[in-house]
């Protein structure tokens, strides 16, 4: 199902070096996975209510500002990446 060139491209994108034996094994393994996924697509799940199997709830906590103790403040000062008792992080 997979061509050797496809495995080489995936390895290159992931920056993973593979010898020929590993490439062949990866080709076989990925083909088996995709064949299994194709078999799963054949299963009729039209009558299944997935909400009853795994109900999804948004569990969130309330945001609140809390004062930190002196030990934490000292650790933040030691890191050198803080401002007004907050951690300063790199922008994305």
Question: What does this molecule look like?
Answer:
The model has no long low-confidence stretch (mean pLDDT 83). This protein has helices spanning 4-13, 20-41, 50-53, 70-79, and strands at 82-83, 86-87. It is mainly alpha-helical. The chain is flat and about 60 Å long. A hairpin with a 2-residue loop joins strand 1 and strand 2. Strands 1-2 form a two-stranded antiparallel ribbon.
SS elements, strand count: 2
Q: pLDDT below 50 for ≥5 consecutive residues: which ranges?
A: none
Shape label: flat
Over all CA atoms, what is the radius of gyration?
25 Å
- The protein's oligomeric status is single chain
SSE layout and pairing:
Elements: H1 4-13, H2 20-41, H3 50-53, H4 70-79, E1 82-83, E2 86-87
Antiparallel strand pairs: 1-2
Name its key features.
92 residues; mainly alpha; two-stranded antiparallel ribbon; flat
Structure, briefly:
This protein has 92 residues and is mainly α. 50% of the residues lie in helices and 4% in strands. It has a two-stranded antiparallel sheet with strand order 1-2.
């Amino acid at each position: 199902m997979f061509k050797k060139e496809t495995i080489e491209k995936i390895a290159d994108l992931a920056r993973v070096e593979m010898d020929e034996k590993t490439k062949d094994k990866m080709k076989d393994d990925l083909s088996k996975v995709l064949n299994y996924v194709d078999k799963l697509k054949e299963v009729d799940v039209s009558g299944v209510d997935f909400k009853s199997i795994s109900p999804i709830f948004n569990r969130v906590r309330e945001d609140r500002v809390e004062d930190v103790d002196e030990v934490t403040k000292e650790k933040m000062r030691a890191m050198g990446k803080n401002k007004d008792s907050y951690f300063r992080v790199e922008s994305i």
